Amino acid sequence: MASRKKLHFPPSDKIKLKVKKLGREKADARVFPDSLIIEVDPRLKGKRRLEVLIHELYHLGRFPRDNETLEKEEHEVTKVSEFLAENLWRFGVRCVIE
Ligand SMILES: [Zn+2]
User: What ranges do the domains of the chain cover?
Assistant: First the structure.
């Protein structure tokens, strides 16, 4: 069985969020683990925006890593972020980017 790195999150005050149109990148959001920048498309709204932010933040828990590791963990990150967003949304949590 492949060994897995433990989650290790960077300090929150080092993470930057940028709202940027990402149509050309064919993505709703993306994360740059080295610079700790998350970019999110301004057209994302509601529960999907909440889910995407959770998703990209979760990715930051396992850096540095290579593309192969990223692909392996994509399934887990997607499942967890969908679950958390679904239930946070049910509980009335909303996502406003200031
Ligand atoms: Zn991902």
Answer: 14-90
The radius of gyration of the chain's CA atoms, rounded to the nearest angstrom, is 14
Distance between Cα 90 and ligand 1 center (Å): 23
Q: Which amino acid is at 67?
A: N
Distance 72 CA to ligand 1 centre (A): 10
pLDDT of residue 16 exceeding 50: yes
Select from 2, 9, 48 the least CA-distant residue to 28: 48
Q: Rounded to whole angstroms, how far apart are CA atoms 42 and 69?
A: 28
What are 41-85's pLDDT values in tens digits?
Answer: 999 999 999 999 999 999 888 765 677 777 778 899 999 999 999
